[in-house]
Recover the amino acids of this structure.
């Protein structure tokens, strides 16, 4: 009888382990932010980590792994053990853009990660230096067409989301604005403020202080709707151009992350994003919390991969990074 009970206990323990460790998490979780400290990815990661930690009952340690437009941090997570203790706050560059730009990528976005949930979105804003005479997107396009290759736009580096926003703009408006990459969005903004370049797409949060003081001019936002923070700015699509891109951030784990663990992380994410303090702090960053299902996030990843594949092919960018 005792031996039978022992077998049952061992079997039950093994079954619980196979079902995704009901005690999860029982130690701190590492969240890889594949970008440098102080940037939008890092800041959003830290705000979200606080709420997730509160809801899941363990410390969330943000680990910055910058480099190669997020590829270095993403590779680390792709090769991590699928135990729920190493997660990625992913975004467009490492998950949708770099896989289309580079000939060799050490992971497959759709095969080597487990989507958990979208976390937030933040609109891009089209900025110009005050010395640029254009007061609208249409005027900027007319100016660019009158000076083919004469205007320049800054980005935070080759393969970043704001680089691709510039390439999408070139294609949508049928213009040739020259790309000038910098080592981060901060240096790109510095160049724009100094008049070294004429325009730039960037996140709304770092742009607002310069818009308020008149040191930069905002022409439009890049998503499907206006932002409540600057409601007077139209979308680029409103002005007649086939343009839609915005910054997004989401949690993924390694491939084969057990479903119970993914489900627990997803539930904690949605709950964390509903916390008033987290909502307020994200809003202050011009970001909107978005809790999604894994299926919705997976669908977005497929759409983003397809979109940037088309843009990169049309712009002739493959393998140039």
């Amino acid at each position: 009888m005792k031996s039978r009970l022992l077998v049952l206990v061992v079997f039950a323990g093994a079954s619980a382990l196979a079902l995704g460790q009901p005690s999860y998490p029982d130690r701190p979780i590492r969240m890889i932010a594949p970008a440098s400290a102080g940037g939008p990815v890092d800041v959003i990661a830290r705000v979200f980590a606080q709420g997730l930690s509160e809801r899941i009952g363990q410390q969330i340690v943000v680990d910055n792994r910058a480099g190669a437009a997020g590829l270095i941090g993403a590779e680390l997570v792709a090769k991590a053990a699928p135990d729920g203790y190493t997660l990625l706050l992913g975004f467009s560059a490492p998950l949708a853009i770099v896989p289309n730009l580079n000939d060799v990528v050490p992971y497959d976005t759709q095969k080597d990660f487990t989507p958990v949930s979208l976390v937030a979105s933040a609109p891009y804003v089209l900025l110009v230096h005050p010395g640029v005479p254009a007061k609208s997107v249409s005027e900027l396009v007319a100016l660019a067409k009158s000076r083919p290759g004469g205007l320049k736009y800054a980005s935070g580096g080759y393969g970043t989301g704001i680089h691709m926003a510039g390439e999408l703009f070139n294609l949508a408006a049928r213009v040739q604005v020259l790309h000038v990459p910098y080592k981060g969005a901060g240096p790109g903004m510095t160049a724009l403020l100094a008049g070294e370049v004429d325009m730039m797409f960037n996140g709304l949060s770092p742009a607002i202080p310069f818009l308020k003081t008149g040191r930069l001019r905002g022409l439009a936002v890049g998503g499907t709707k206006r932002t409540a923070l600057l409601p007077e700015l139209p979308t680029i699509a409103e002005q007649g151009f086939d343009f839609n891109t915005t910054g997004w951030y989401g949690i993924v784990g390694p491939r084969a992350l057990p479903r119970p663990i993914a489900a627990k992380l997803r539930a904690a994410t949605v709950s964390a994003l509903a916390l008033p303090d987290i909502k307020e702090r994200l809003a202050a960053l011009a970001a909107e919390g978005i809790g999604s299902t894994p299926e919705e996030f997976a669908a977005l990843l497929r759409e983003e991969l397809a979109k940037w594949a088309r843009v990169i092919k049309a712009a002739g960018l493959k393998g140039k990074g």
Residues 1-20 have pLDDT under 50 and may be disordered.
